[in-house]
User: What shape does this take?
Amino acid sequence: MNPHHNIIGLAPGNKSNIGNVTIYSNIMFVLWCIISIFIFFEILLFTAFWNNVSCL
Assistant: This one.
């Protein structure tokens, strides 16, 4: 039994809820990764843009 599910407070016998929470957690994790990579590239492009402007 994953202790993470106990923190959420689900009953250990309720498999469908645990499955839904796991899928939801995976989706949120993937979204978080995509958003983090997007923000990282935004910062890279922004700094590169400002470096080019300051060179001009």
In short: The CA atoms of residues 5 and 18 lie 7 Å apart. Residues 3-55 form one domain.
